[in-house]
Design a protein that fits this description.
By secondary structure, this protein is an alpha/beta fold. The protein is built from 16 helices and 13 strands. Helix 4 crosses helix 6. The longest helix is centred in the middle third of the chain and has 16 residues, at about 115-130. The chain is globular, with a radius of gyration of 21 Å. The two termini are about 35 Å apart.
């Protein structure tokens, strides 16, 4: 899911190494852009015999034949639980496919046992390593790459556009958005940016690679409500001193808990503090590398109960409500990666101050 979502708009061919039919789950439930735009997303249609006996030659031949006909900008082969259990070397298959087709190929060793954060991060990391050209010393003075934009965290349409607009309104030039609203050619120019803005955990590994390759500093944070101004100041500081920084605090001792992807949740916590003095703690139910404290990461449902002890208000996707403390006020904040399309129409644009004020109003009822 994560690999395909990260690369969906870039003109490549994404292939999941899995049994026939599994791509329909991704297309119809995990990918909100599927019905409105074209993308090459395929599956290898592994049979039981192929999985058990090993049919890598057939997999490579099928992908090469499809690539010869469709001529994608790149190929991405992603693993799933079946090839992981069989020990399939996905990166090696990627190298074979690239050699035969002459098309840049990413063999991404995913196994379907981790969240979308892992898949998106690995896909963006491949782009940072191989798709971004050396700028040859050229820099766009106020150029910014926005890293970590996928509909899994920002839904479709306006939220992603609003992030780019918030950056542009503060005097920065958006070089590329990874990967909503930008082409592969835009991303190839990312080395010319002077700073990177990591708006979700999915862009963090790519930011570190771009820093290593080109010396580009990065700032971590999502422009939520009034926090946008503080975040843009952090971008200006990074431009000035060349240092990377996280603009959001790891946690707070407040009695409000926000459950979700950590960067956006921590940024929302900062926005609530700025707007109404609400002290909130961000808790991530995923394998976050940015959540500062172990108590801010919860991987089991039983840990949710412990994380919410003493909480008076919980802000989270509606599907979390059944495990909320009875004494806590629950404020729904739908998250595409958690509940899919069920509550999509209710997903707010957190870059807007009115969305922050609405959450505050619901919390105070």
């Amino acid at each position: 899911m994560g690999v395909c979502s990260a690369l969906f708009e870039l003109g490549g061919m994404c292939v999941m190494d899995d049994a026939s039919g599994c791509n329909s789950t991704y297309n119809t439930h995990d990918e909100p852009r599927w019905y409105d735009s074209d993308s090459l997303v395929f599956i290898t249609a592994l049979t039981e015999n192929e999985a058990l006996m090993g049919e890598d030659d057939k997999t490579v031949a099928d992908i090469c034949a499809a690539a010869e006909e469709l001529r994608p900008r790149f190929i991405a082969l992603a693993g799933t639980p079946i090839p992981a259990m069989c020990g399939t070397d996905i990166p090696a298959l990627g190298r074979v496919i690239e050699k035969r087709t002459g098309i840049m190929t990413f063999g991404i060793q995913t196994d379907g046992m981790h969240s979308y954060l892992s898949g998106c991060s690995k896909a963006f990391a491949e782009l940072a390593r191989r798709a971004v050209r050396d700028p040859g010393g050229k820099r766009i003075k106020n150029g910014v790459n926005i890293l970590g934009l996928t509909p899994l965290d920002f839904s479709v349409g306006k939220p992603a556009e609003s992030v780019a607009r918030a950056v542009a309104e503060h005097g920065f030039d958006v070089v590329s958005s990874w990967a909503m609203g930008s082409s592969l050619d835009d991303i190839a120019l990312s080395g010319e940016a002077a700073v990177n803005l990591v708006v979700s955990e999915t862009g963090y590994e790519a930011a570190k690679i771009l820093q290593s390759r080109f010396g580009t500093p990065y700032v971590v944070g999502t422009p939520c409500g009034g926090f946008a101004g503080r975040l843009m100041s952090a971008l200006e500081e990074a431009l000035s001193d060349g240092g990377s920084r996280t603009a959001v605090a790891p946690s707070s001792d407040g009695d409000t808990v926000i459950i979700g992807e950590w960067v956006a949740s921590a940024s929302l916590a900062a926005a609530l503090d700025i707007a109404a003095g609400i002290k909130a703690r961000a808790v991530c139910p995923l394998e976050s590398k940015l959540a500062g404290n172990s108590e801010d990461r919860i991987m089991e449902e039983s840990e949710v109960t412990d994380a919410l002890i003493g909480a008076k208000t919980v802000i989270a996707d509606p599907l979390w409500k059944p495990v909320m403390p009875e004494t806590a006020k629950f404020v729904p904040l739908p998250h595409e990666a958690f509940s899919g399309r069920i509550f999509r129409r209710d997903i707010p644009d957190l870059t807007k101050e009115e969305s922050i004020l609405h959450i505050i109003s619901e919390a105070e009822k």
